Model the fold of this input.
Amino acid sequence: MTAPVTPQVKVAPSEPATSSRGRRIGPRTTKALISLGSLWLFALLVALWWLGSNNSHSSFFPPLRLTLIRFRQLWLFADVRTDLAPSLFHLAIGYAIASVLGIAVGALMWALPLLRQASSPVVYFLYVLPAPILIPAVLVLFGIGASMSVAIISFACVWPILLNTLDGMRGTDQLKIDTARSLGLSYWRRLWSVVLPGASPQIVAGLRAGLQVGIILMVVSEEVGSTQGIGFFILQAQENFAGTDMWTGILVLGVVGTVLNVLFVAGERFALRWYYGSRAAARER
Amino acid sequence: MATTTRGVSAPGTSRGGGRWYTTRTTNLAARLALIAVLLGIWQLLVVGGALNKDAFPTMSSTLAALVDQIHTSACWTTVAQTLEGWGVGVALGCVAAIVLGSAIGLSRFAYRSTIPVIEFLKAVPVVAILPIAIVEFGTRLSMKMVLVAFGVFFPLVIQVIYGVRSVDPTVADTATSLQVRGARRFFVVVIPSAAPFIATGVRIAAATGLVIEIVAELIGGGAGLGQRILAAENAGPSSLPVMYAFILITGLIGVTLTGIFTVAERRTLRWHESQRNIVSRGAS
Done:
């Protein structure tokens, strides 16, 4: 067994930790109060940052007060259109290409064992190759601009999606496939209604890993070779000694990262609600 | 246990049944054949003109450059510079994450309080703080190390926290009734049950660390493979083969490092799985 499976073995769940001891979670309001109470450290750290930086005159560590004022000037919402929207657009296209390709080729490799075996060293090599190292090469091929960003984002995202798809499909219980076959389901029907749903939790895990890779590559590709976008904005602010602007950019990236993550988890919860439901049922037994 | 163990085949099971030897030979042949075919297509595409020679080197010139480079000491210095920043950064990040993660995971209050902060900081892509690191540390080794350690810390600390908190209630209660407390409880009960989480986290950290190291070299200008490749790009079309040779070298380093960590992880897991199988068999 030397297929390039990624042993996604013990990975912390993305869902907020409900107590594993099967304690019932209280009504929604209690839950909100608890999460509010758990935010004290967050608030404390922000307060410390505010007070500690308030008298700072260093251009690269400006007072938080000034950063927030500047943030409002820049990002609500003038620069969002010019500096953030293009980045997110490139990410969306690259990620979409990678998702379709990753799932389709992953399924193809599952269906054709010889292809899977033959391609495993190549796929593994491309998977572990740190994608940013290809940026100079992609830059030569595509030049500076949108297509370069999209190309490197989709290249980097495709491998975790592909490998998790393949892995999830290979994990399908043979008994289920045999049952479906004896029920007379066609090959495509088996693929569509038995193998794909069974693999979907892991495909989603791959999509989540791909999204994180994609955000990194979005920023890095703009920092190396671009004339627009949030990565370009941050690096240019640093080179112009505009420390306050730079910090607003970092805040924007923090917000973008958090929002995309929350959106993904919400989508995952919705798409896989049957799965979480069955797992919860299994736990209560 | 809420997590699945899908994705790892149980050691010792091979699908081919009795004829695994011939399957293995066929597989090896298929793999080598595919690599040869891909290299051939690469060469043909460039020589045939489908790919612009000024943007993409031929396969033969790239492999020649690779052989050339491997015989220079400068190449190995570059590799060592990358490995140095990676190694120290990953080690720092891992030690910090394991120590702090254990401390946080053992206290419900600390867990509740820190999780929002950690989740937010984890969502900030590490490349965002790169400019701060450049300002603070310049292009020195410490810049790369700090970035790698920072980037590795947050994903791993979450793994450690969940691992420490995942102790089987039965095991925990047994330990309590046997009055296993303090440091003994930590090393005998908590760490063994968290070990698979930590092993997976460290493997992921090693791979992430290499990506961040390369980014720090590409953008921050720290010495190493990233900077070498950027220099080759700037030198024009004639050094394209050298650039791709270094990309291949980087990939091979990735393969080696990931291989080492995967094997190490399998070792810890094999032990763990066998323990769990015995437990579940005993229970049924």
